[in-house]
Amino acid sequence: MIKVLNKKYKKKRTKKWYQLDYNEKVWILMLLPGIIFTLVFRYGPMFGIIMAFQDFDPIKGFFGSEWVGLENFQYIFILPGFTRAIKNTIVIAFFKIVLGILVPLILALLINEITRPLFTKFIKTTVFLPFFLSWVILGGMMIQILGLGGLVNTVLEQLHLEPIMFLLDNNWFRPVLISTDVWKGMGYNMIIFLAAITAIDSSQYESAKIDGANRFQQMLYVTIPGMAPIIVLVSTLAIGGLLNAGFEQVLVLYNPIVYETGDIIDTFVYRVGVQKELYSLSTAIDLFKAGINIVLIGGSYYLAYKFSDYRIF
User: Bridge-partner residues for 66, per DSSP?
Assistant: First the structure.
C-alpha cells in the first residue's frame, strides 16, 4: 500500500516538458551546455583509465592492447625519480596550502582595520590582479625578474653582491615556487575571508566594546571565531588537493638542473607519458595519485565535520 502511494506521489511530482513553465525551461536549457561539457570532457576521458591495466599500444587501441593487470602499478615504484617526485609534491603543496591560507587571512584582517575606502579598494585590486593572469605570463615575468640578467640580480650587482641563480639552484627553486604561488593566489582567498568578515553580526563588536575590548582583542575574539567556518571550508578544500602542487607553474619555471627539488608528480607524468610515450605507466601514476586524493578529500571532510561541526555537502 505504501509503495503504491509513493508511486502515485512521484507521478504527481514529476512534470513533463510541456508542463514546465517558461522559467523552468530556461533554467534547464542553461544547464544543458554545462552538463554536456562535463559528460564529454570529464566523464568521457575516464574510459582511458583502462590503459593503466594494459601494455597500451596506440596502433592496437584499447581493445587490442595486451592486458597486464596491476603490473604497471608494481613497476612505477621502482621508476627512477618517482619517490623524489612524491616527496617534492608533498613538501611544495604543504607549504603552498599553509601559506596560501595564512597570508590571505592576515591580509584580510589588516585590510578590515583600514578605514579609508579608496585605499582599501586600491589594495584589493592590486592584490587580486595576479590571480587573473596565467602562469605562462607570470612565468615569463619571473624568468625576466629572477634570471641572471634580471631585475633582482641587477640590483644585487649594483650593491656589489654575488648574483643568485634563483631558477637554477636547488636551494632557491622551491622557495621561489612557493612564494610566487602564494603571491598569485592570495587575492582570491583574501576576498573570501573579507566576505566572511562582513557576514559577522555587528552587535558582537558592540558587545566587545562595552566589555572594554580594544581593536586587537575584537579581532582575536570576535572576527577570527566568526570566520572559523570559512577558514575550515577553505582548508578542507585545500587539503583535498595536497598532491596538486601546481603543474602549470612548475612546467613553466623548472628545468633538469632543479629536478631534485622541483620535479612533482604531474611533471613526472608529463615526461613519462608525453615525452617518453609510456602511456600505460603515466596513466597508472595518475590513477595512483587520484586514489590518494580521494582518500585525502574524504578524510578532510570527516575532520571538518568532527572538529568544527561543519558540512560542505
Answer: 55
Whether the Cβ atoms of residue 261 and residue 170 lie closer than 8 Å to each other? yes
CA distances for 217 relative to 21, 122, 213, 221, angstroms: 53, 27, 5, 6
For residue 11, pLDDT over 80 is answered with no
DSSP tag of 160: T
Q: Which amino acid is at 71?
A: E
> Residue 8: pLDDT above 60?
no
Quote the cell numbers at residue 70. Answer: 596491476
pLDDT band at 15 (very low <50, low <70, confident <90, very high): low
> Which of 149, 181, 180, 144 minimizes the C-alpha distance to 163?
149
Residues 278/289, Cβ–Cβ less than 8 Å: no
Confidence of residue 9 (pLDDT cuts 50, 70, 90): very low
Q: In angstroms, what CA-CA distances link 267 with 50, 65, 217, 241, 243?
A: 21, 26, 46, 16, 12
131-145 tens-digit pLDDT: 888 899 998 899 889
Helices (H), the chain: 2-13, 22-38, 61-64, 71-76, 82-112, 117-128, 135-146, 151-158, 170-198, 202-210, 215-218, 224-239, 247-253, 259-262, 265-270, 279-308
Residue 36's pLDDT is what?
Answer: 92
**Can you tell me whether residue 66 is helix, strand or coil?**
strand
Question: In this predicted model, what pLDDT tens digit does every residue of 176-209 receive, in sequence order?
Answer: 999 999 999 888 889 999 988 888 888 888 888 8
Q: Residue 231 in 3-state DSSP?
A: helix
Q: Angle, to 10 degrees, between the axis of helix 224-239 and the axis of helix 279-308? A: 160
